[in-house]
Specification:
This protein is mainly alpha-helical. Helices cover 59% and strands 0% of the residues. The chain is built from seven helices and no strands.
């Protein structure tokens, strides 16, 4: 395959197929060079055309809880009381900076995700 810019979805799919065929390339070979160049092109195309939005803070917390097998009670030390955890997870109250720091430090949720704005159900 001739490596060229990815201009549309068809080019993108062809590049992905070619990348798949190069996955067993050995280091310091023309095949590995092609793989590295194509990967860079695909990443740039995906950033423009297939961007995945980051989850809002509550979804990020719930996702990490699921990953770690955590229950609401496990967040008490990071957020406050059981009722405060419930309010946060049910979108009745916003996260405070202290909560964000604790969640980031203890659950390793990216700060960018935790600081994102989100809607609450309170008036």
């Amino acid at each position: 395959m001739h490596i060229r810019p990815i201009k549309n979805e068809e080019d993108y799919l062809q590049a992905l197929a070619y990348i798949e065929s190069l996955m067993d390339a050995k280091p310091d070979t023309p095949q590995m060079d092609a793989l590295e160049v194509l990967t860079t092109l695909v990443e740039a195309y995906e950033e423009q055309h297939h961007k995945i939005e980051a989850p809002d803070p509550i979804e990020a917390i719930k996702f990490r809880m699921e990953q770690e097998g955590l229950k609401q009670k496990d967040l008490v030390a990071m957020i406050g009381s059981k009722s405060r955890v419930s309010e946060i997870l049910n979108r009745k109250r916003k996260l405070t900076i202290e909560m964000i720091r604790n969640l980031h430090k203890q659950l390793h949720i990216p700060v960018e995700s935790l600081f994102a704005d989100y809607k609450t159900q309170c008036a």
